Every structure is written in C-alpha cells, then in structure tokens.
Automatic annotation (TrEMBL):
Signal peptide: none annotated. This is D-Lysine 5,6-aminomutase alpha subunit. Residues 8-514 form the D-Lysine 5,6-aminomutase alpha subunit domain. GO terms for molecular function: catalytic activity; cobalamin binding.
Amino acid sequence: MEHFESKLGIDPKRVEKARQLAKDIAVDVVNFVQKYSTVSVERTICRFFGIDGINEEGVPLPNVVVDHLKEKGALENGAALYIGNAVLETGMTPQEIAEAIAADKLDLTKLPMHNIDDIKGVVDELADKAIKIIDEKKAERQRMLEELGDPPQPYIYVIVATGNIYEDVVQAQAAVRQGADIIAVIRSTAQSLLDYVPYGATTEGFGGTYATQENFRIMRKALDEVAREVKRYIRQTNYSSGLCMPEIAALGALERLDVMLNDALYGILFRDINMIRTMVDQYFSRIILGYAGIIINTGEDNYLTTADAYEQGYTVISSQLINEQLALLAGIPEEQMGLGHAFEMDPSLENGFLYELAQAQLSRELFPKAPLKYMPPTRFMTGNIFRGLVQDAMFNVVGIWTKQGIQLLGMMTEAIHTPFLSDRYVAIDTAKYIFNNMRNIGDEVIFKPGGIIQRRAQQVLEQAIELLEKMREDGLFKSLEKGVFANTKRPIKGGKGLDGVFEKGKYYYNPFVEKMLKKQLDL
C-alpha cells in the first residue's frame, strides 16, 4: 500500500484495517473448509483424470464413480486414492475403470489396497497429465494475445442466451464484429441446481444454454475464428458456480475459457445452496481458475437488486474485500480478480450519479490491479427504452472515468425482452463512443476536498469496516445466517447440496490442491 494516492481522500490506514479484517474472516473460512470435501470436488478429480461420457441412463461417468464410492461408504478417503489403486491393480485407465463400474463389473472397494506411497505415485502421474493440458492452454492464450493484441480496458462484455449453442455462436460472432471483447454464454435457468454437468452439445436451454464441455469447445473455436478476423483476442465467459462449481472450473481450464463467474456467496444468497458445500467447492474451483489464468467474476452487484444501493452500498465493498482475500488464499493473483459491483442507484435520487461515481472510484482505489466487473442498471430499468439508453450511457461514463476493467453493457430493452442483435449493436456503439471521447477523463479531473463524492466514499468505507468488524466477531457463516448481505438470511445446515459434503478421512488425497497452489504461491 506504499504508493496509495487517493482522489477520494481515503486514509490508507483505514484501507489496511479493512483488509486485515477481511483477511481474518477469509482465513477462518479456509481453515474450516480444508477439513471437508464434496461430491463435486471428487467428480472434478475424476474429470481431470480423463473420465468423461455417460452411462446407458445418461448419467455422467464422474457421477457414476463418485456415487459408487458414496454408496459403499468409502468416499471419505476420496476418489483419487481408489482410482489410483485400481490403476495399479488392474492396469486399466481411469476411463476404462469408470466404464467397468458403470457396467457393474468392478467394485473399487473390493480391490486389494496397494502401498499408499505407490498409489500416490500413480495419482501424481495422472494429475501431472491434466496440469500439462492446462499449461498448454495457458501458453496458447498467451500466444494469441501476443499475436492478436489485447483490447484496451474496460473490455466490452455482452451476453448470448439463445438456449442453442449453434445459435449462440452466430450471435457471438456478430457481437464481436460489432465491437465486443468478451462474450458470456448465459447458462440455462436453474443449471446451478443440477448436481451433475450435462453432456455434449445442447440445443434446448431456457433463458440460456447449458454449460457443457462440448459447448465450451464449440464456442471457443468460433471465438478464435472471429478473433483472427477482427485482429484482437476475444475472451470467453461462462459460469463456474452452483452445485458443480469446481467441475465447471475444470472444464473451463481444459477448454481455455478466459473469464468465469465464481462466487459462493452468490450461490448461498440467490440459489439457496448450502453455505458449507459451496464454500468448499469454491476453494477448489478458485485454485483451478487461479492456476489456469482465468479471471473470476464475483457477484456483489446482485446484492443491490434486493437491497437499496444508497443505503447498502457498503455491503458491496465489504464483500469485495472478503472475496479478494478468499481469492488470494486460493492462489488467484489480483490481476485475475474481476470483483463485482453495479450502477444501481434509484434514478430519482438527487446527485445519484455522484454517489455512483464515488462508489465506483472507491472500488477502483481499493483494488488497483483488479479488472473490476461493472454491471449496468437493471433494477430501475423500465419499458421506456429511451430513458434506459440514457441510464446506460451514464453507467458507461462512470465506467471509463473510474477505469473499470470489464464493462457489462446494458441494453435499452433490458426490462422488456432478451436483447435483439440490433439492441446489442446500439449498446456497443454507444459504449465505444463514450469510451473514446472520455478516455482520459479520470486522469484530468480531481474531486473537491470534503465535497459530496469524497464524503460519500469515506462514509461507505467506514460503514464497510464496521460491518467487517461484526463479521469477524461472528465469522462468515453466522453472518450469513443473520442476513448481512442482500437482506437475505440462510441457515448453516439449510439449503441444497449439504448431503454432498463429507469430512476428509485419514488417507484423503487431492493432488491438484497441492500441485496447483504450490506453483501459484511460488510465483
């Protein structure tokens, strides 16, 4: 923090205080979750070992293997140990082992157990193969960035959400030609509540398209094609959240996605996923994403869809600080933290724009290296598309002024329907006009000492510190039970997916945590 120069008149000692509180909360969470694993973490290990495909009933083979171990009461020592042992004993590949289990021809728990060090040797070899693929994907991204160039921030981010991956490709390529830098494939409604990852290319999602490995692959190929055409690297985004958080992170790493929405707090608050399950899943998923060079996007912007942006702006700052510390503990560098916030003040609020500017500048000053993810107005969008376009324009002004990293463009028809190609064109065209015309306004304008903007930012930071102090006392889990974020209370033993959590046994081994974290933290 030595070079902390604040346009907002923020005291660097208060920033340090806020960070330390957030760190204490995060360390507490990580110490707790390291004792547990989940069915989704174990399925992720299976996927990294090359297990793929489905059985006759359409159940993904990673689920078949993990459910088999769970039914036999053997899950506490983890899937890696049993698969490694079976490779030693039978000479089969992990994929062949999974197929044999699916055909009822193999029981992993009945095989004679080999020496634990020999098993770990096999497991490490399998892990190294998967890590090599991810290393190759990272190198490929780097080569393409050098060859095609990286567009300036804020990256222009738009969504496609047809439900059909082939239709999504057409829309995505059109958006890139119009000027988009990041394409996010919105996930089919409620996929976050499925405790498995659908298989293959999909053509019928509702409100979005299923996140599958094949769909990732199809979109990656299409975006690389259009990137060479427009001569700039295009980033691909999907959702690594919900009950399959780490599995989808693994698929994103294997298929060279660039950005993934990844925030357990969002799943707890807005999808009622059990907090222990999703914090355990998040820790492993973030280790994977950090290692793979994928930017994470967090979901603080959603708090302001249920809570008032003026009254509760400080909850966003508190959550960003906690998310930053949780990410650091999982080996994610600041340059990969797309911490979320949003332009959600009530448009009828006098000086609302100044408050938005203060909040966005505060996020920028607190996280100087982060490619912050800035969300457009949604809560106060109406059927008046002309006012909507003005609201989005003001959002874009704050975005360029405060040097946001990732700008999720608002659409003038936001409150009416899924955007048409023409709506997307207008949104991109407007954003490019504003970004170009106001490129350096943030370097030119200083804020009046003791004025509305400085006072607001200082007040929000103090409120955030106050909340973090309470949260440190209670711990994150109890704080979520009390409803500190988004006016939403969740019980620690409630929500979906708790039955998929288990305490690690004596011989539990997950090679990826050690290997990926060690490399990341050594950097």
